[in-house]
Amino acid sequence: MQFTLEDITADEIDRRRGVYGPLTDSVRDLIDAVIRTEVDAADIDVARRRIDEVVADLRSRQIDGSYGVRFNTDAVGMPWGNAVMGVRNAIAPPVRTVADREGVTAEFTLGAAYEGPAHHVHGGVCAMVLDQVLGEAAAADDIPCFTGTITVTYRRPTPLGALSARAEIVDRDGRKKIVRGTLSDADGVTAEAEGVFIVPKNWSGPSNLK
Ligand SMILES: CCCCCCCCCCCCCC(=O)SCCNC(=O)CCNC(=O)[C@H](O)C(C)(C)COP(=O)(O)OP(=O)(O)OC[C@H]1O[C@@H](n2cnc3c(N)ncnc32)[C@H](O)[C@@H]1OP(=O)(O)O
């Protein structure tokens, strides 16, 4: 797994989060608005031109390729392009986990952009969120792991709206960690997952990533 070291302070990371986080929130809101708007075709045309202008402005100075996973010399991580929790990724719901002694928990909202069956979450999105949450549980006491195998059991359709996820390591065997987790709505579990997460063989990044 490749990481990029950035020699910047925690304050600078906070400053950047303060600059890019609100932009990402606005774009996430734009995605939702594009799905749900019913304004006239002429207004859509004006909106499209305005969006194209903003895109041209942002692209006037940009990096090559994807954002990557960056960290500073104190091992503070910036996985800001991450599809599930990235600070600079408007596709990310975002899902942010909180760690405790046994595992990790996340509370988040999946809106119109994540629909599969009518008014319910796309099964692939459920799997994506569970992969991330289980992966973070696997990494909580060590270093980021690769998903080797993940199995998702869909117990009932997951409604769009407020959801939570929970994951814990249940077994360890050498570089392998077996992790189990759940996705839930207010009425209980909608999907369960079990995964084998594998610590990379030749890890060159820092341990105890924050
Ligand atoms: C800076 C801040 C960062 C923050 C990051 C946020 C957290 C990140 C959260 C991200 C979350 C999202 C995460 C993502 O999205 S990760 C992206 C999705 N996953 C991948 O792309 C992984 C692709 N596969 C590989 O790279 C390799 O095949 C891996 C690394 C998995 C194993 O290759 P390696 O060369 O290491 O394996 P080995 O041959 O030495 O075998 C070692 C042991 O493992 C067992 N095994 C092998 N393969 C599998 C398998 N597929 N299932 C089950 N078990 C498997 C094998 O039997 C053996 O067991 P044993 O015989 O010893 O008992």
Automatic annotation (TrEMBL):
Subcellular location: Cell projection, Ruffle membrane; Cytoplasm; Membrane
Keywords: Apoptosis, Cell membrane, Cell projection, Cytoplasm, Fatty acid metabolism, Hydrolase, Lipid metabolism, Membrane, Transit peptide
Reaction catalyzed: octanoyl-CoA + H2O = octanoate + CoA + H(+); dodecanoyl-CoA + H2O = dodecanoate + CoA + H(+); tetradecanoyl-CoA + H2O = tetradecanoate + CoA + H(+); decanoyl-CoA + H2O = decanoate + CoA + H(+)
Enzyme Commission (EC) number: 3.1.2.2
Membrane topology, as annotated: Peripheral membrane protein
Primary localization class, coarse: membrane
InterPro entries to which the protein is assigned, alphabetical: HotDog_dom_sf (IPR029069), THEM4/THEM5_acyl-CoA_thioest (IPR052365), Thioestr_dom (IPR006683)
Annotated family: Belongs to the THEM4/THEM5 thioesterase family.
Domain Thioesterase, chain residue ranges per copy: 120-190
Uppermost EC category: hydrolase
Name recorded for this polypeptide: Acyl-coenzyme A thioesterase THEM4
Annotated GO MF terms: hydrolase activity
Pfam families given in the database record: 4HBT
Matching CDD domains: PaaI_thioesterase
Any Gene Ontology CC annotation: membrane
Biological-process GO terms, alphabetical: fatty acid metabolic process
